[in-house]
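Hi support team,

I'm filing this because I wasn't sure whether my run with iron/sulfur cluster finished correctly. The job status page said complete, but I'd like someone to confirm that the output block is well-formed before I use it downstream. Pasting the exact inputs I used:
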Amino acid sequence: MSIKEYFKSIFKGIYSLLQGMQVTGKELVTKKVTEQYPENRNHLLHEGGIPERFRASLEFIYDDEGYHKCIACKSCERNCPNGTIQVITKMVDLPNGKKKMKLDRYMYDLGSCTFCNLCVLTCPTAAIRFSNDFEQSTFEREALVKQLNYLPEKEKPVPAPAPKPAPAPKPAPAVAKPAEAQAKPAAEPTPQAKSAEEPTPQEKPAAAPDADKSPDNTENKENKQ
Ligand code: SF4
Ligand code: SF4
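And here is everything the job wrote out:
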C-alpha cells in the first residue's frame, strides 16, 4: 500500500464515522418525548395524558343508583375468541312464583385479553366497556383475574300493579214490545206444502173407460152386423 492510499483509507473511515454520528447528533438537540413515569403520573391520570379510547381493562357500567344492565345472556362469553370471560349464573325465584336466570359472577382474565373489543360490540344491553385505566401491572398472574360485578346486586323495585278500571254499567234492558207486535203472522204455506195438499196425478180418479171400448158397445156392434 502506498502512502497516498494509506491516508485515503483513514479519511474514508472518519467520513463514515461522522455519517453514523449524524443521527445521534440530531436526536441530541431534538425535544424529548420519553414519558417520565411515575413522575408524570398526575398528567397521565388527570390531564388527558392517556387517550380516552385506550383499552386498558374491561369493566361493568353501573348507573348512579348502583344498577348494572347485564342480563346474563352469555353473548360476550361466546364471542370472546380466547375464553377470557366466564359468566356464572344462578336461578332465582321471583315473587310471582316463576324462576329466572340471573348473573352470579362475571369473571374477566386481563392476562389473556387481546383487547379486540368483540365482547363490548356484541353485548345486547351495552352493559360493559373498556376503561383507559392503564395502571394494571401486578406481581401475580392470579391478580389479573377480576370479578367485574363487584357491587352487591340490588333488586329493582317492582312497580305496583295499576288499579283495574271499574266495570262499565250494563245497558238498561230494552222496553218489551207489545205481544201483538211480537206475534208473527202465520207463515204462508210453502209451495211444497201447497203441492202436498193438492192431489197428485196418481191420486186422481181413473178416467172413465171410453164408451166405444166398453163390452156393451161391442155387443151392440155385433148385433148390428
Ligand atoms: S376484548 Fe376480546 S379478548 Fe378481551 S374479553 Fe373482550 S372478546 Fe375477549
Ligand atoms: S355483559 Fe352483555 S353480553 Fe355479557 S352476559 Fe351481560 S348482557 Fe350478556
